[in-house]
């Protein structure tokens, strides 16, 4: 019984390929159950986001699991396995959990330390559980990973360091201890940066948010909030005089705001190059240069924190290994499989004696099909053994099952109970 990962991510896979291999919400349950029916697959979870399509599996054989998982992906999306093989990543055993722990805290994301992926993972594991494709192993993996990620975010707050100029600027107000109550913010320019600033401003308790743009219609999506009002370019001076905080995010190539146009105690942010707010020793002004320097500090802090979290991942792997050892079922499954394969090999030898003219190719085909029959017969007993490994009577139940199959571990368990 092994953990297996088969995936495609933004790191190795071109966007043109990745977007074609995305599982839709409406077909996810069907896909989970279809993967669960594949040979060797005992448990499965599918994670499918804009940046990754990943299969997290528990399999009874690694090589068989890799083969069928790869073909499952190709068949699901109607592509040749050769078309996706160059981009597929395979991970086995503890490497699977190491990767998942790193993913959960955003260490494998495009934006280092982002939190969105944690919610996506939680949803993916819950969906698989509801579909009935997880069991004792992936349920424990889910519990451990989600607990770990929450603890890391609480302890290190890696996502508290902004990664955009807009958020860095808005956070500067928090650093200054700015009191948002009964205050007015003016945002001049509603390009990409201006719109981001507006979204962040909406999350703060400003009493009034004034949006000014050459094209007033650009402000319309934000007017659902009663604090927001839209203004034309001709109202620039009037708007500037009302604001306690001013953000300029418009490209004009010249100064459009001067200290005389602003309140004496205004806090101003010039997010443009060339600059649009005329500097003055009496004006509390933050420019692209100031904010970029702060952004570099935040980026360096994120990278330092990522190194610390990566070390925590290694400790977490030891915890899972301890849990797995307590499970005590891995050697039983291994013994059951070995017994079955011994029987298969013995039957094949007997068949070769009875059919001495059998060609090597025929022998290979027969051996392959016999192993397939063995795997199909073993799948359900292995699932039951795995699920019976927890609970009040787990020790006795497992020992009894193993005695029925003639496994030494099971006999030993019952003997220990009698002493």
Would you mind describing this structure in some detail?
The protein has 419 residues and is an alpha/beta fold. It has three domains: 159 residues, Beta Polymerase, domain 2, CATH 3.30.460; 127 residues, NAD(P)-binding Rossmann-like Domain (Rossmann fold), CATH 3.40.50.720; 91 residues. Helices cover 54% and strands 13% of the residues. It is elongated, with a radius of gyration of 30 Å. The C terminus is likely disordered.
Nutshell version of this structure?
With 419 residues, the chain is of the alpha/beta class. It is built from 15 helices and ten strands. Helix 5 packs across helix 7, helix 5 runs antiparallel to helix 11 and helix 14 packs across helix 15.
Q: What separation lies between the terminal Cα atoms? A: 30 Å
* Largest β sheet strand count, sense and barrel closure: 6 strands, parallel
Radius of gyration from the alpha-carbon trace, in angstroms: 30 Å
What's the number of domains? 3
β-strand number: 10
| Category by helix and strand content | alpha/beta
Report the CATH C-level class of the largest domain: Alpha Beta
Assign the CATH architecture of the largest domain: 2-Layer Sandwich
Q: Considering DSSP H and I runs of 4 or more, what fraction of the residues is helical?
A: 40-55%
- Specify the CATH homologous superfamily of the largest domain: Glutamyl-tRNA reductase, N-terminal domain
Q: Which fold name fills CATH's third level, the topology of the largest domain? A: Beta Polymerase, domain 2
Run of helices and strands = EHHEEHHEHHHHEHEEHEEEHHHHH
Mean pLDDT: 88
Q: State the shape.
A: elongated
Low-confidence stretches: 410-419
Strand content: 5-15%
Strand numbers in spatial order across the main sheet: 7-6-5-8-9-10
Q: What's the total helix number?
A: 15
